[in-house]
Design goal:
With about 190 residues, the protein is of the alpha/beta class. It has a single domain, classed as P-loop containing nucleotide triphosphate hydrolases (Rossmann fold), CATH 3.40.50. About 60% of the residues lie in helices and about 15% in strands. It contains nine helices and five strands. The protein has a five-stranded parallel sheet with strand order 2-3-1-4-5, sandwiched between helices. Bound molecules: BIS(adenosine)-5'-tetraphosphate (B4P). BIS(adenosine)-5'-tetraphosphate binds next to helix 1, helix 2, helix 6 and helix 9.
Amino acid sequence: MLNVVIFGAPGAGKGTQSDKLVERFKLNHISTGDLLRKEIAEQTELGKRIKSIMDSGSLVSDDIVIEMIDKAIANDTQGILFDGFPRNVAQAEVLDKMLEKHGRKLTCMIQLDVPQEELIRRMLERAKISGRSDDNEVTIKNRLKEYESKTLPVANYYAQQGKQIKINGLGSVDAIAQNIISEVERVSK
Ligand code: B4P
């Protein structure tokens, strides 16, 4: 069973490429960003607590996100694509333990590489249609800072395990998807 992490800076195209991978490999798509936005939209108690954190561009606390992921793994029967998780090394360590508890292990981590100017351009472009309150210049700067300091070390964590696969995230969505699909097919043989 495939268990893949898609990794990259905010705006790198994780959500966009996830749609392609899910279609190709029939995976369960677990996006922590989407799960958190759903809580906010439904105005749950949790949603009220996390809205201001997400609007500031900071990461939501590990406990909240980890509980969501644990439930998702327990309910899955088809393989999982983790999108936007893990976001720091502590989450990466917990993910390994959770997968082990369910008799699984990570297949690979796909890292989308996109230069910072392009990330900012994409998120400001998305802001025009997404209505996402975290797609504005001030929040984007903080999200990128959070990424550099807390999330980027996760890449090294997977490199040390030999699980990291770097993909150029510039170019057409379909060409990038094809590169990712070839790599996932190669490592899952
Ligand atoms: P996320 O929802 O994960 O969002 P993201 O990183 O901004 O976007 P993504 O990389 O998926 O980009 P997309 O495909 O949309 O996180 C939001 C917030 O949730 C975080 O800031 C944090 O507060 C919280 N959070 C989430 N997970 C967490 C965790 N584990 N722990 C703690 N907090 C957590 O692409 C961006 C744009 O680029 C789109 O408009 C797309 O159309 C465009 N695009 C994509 N590919 C392109 C290409 N090849 N060329 C040109 N444009 C492209």
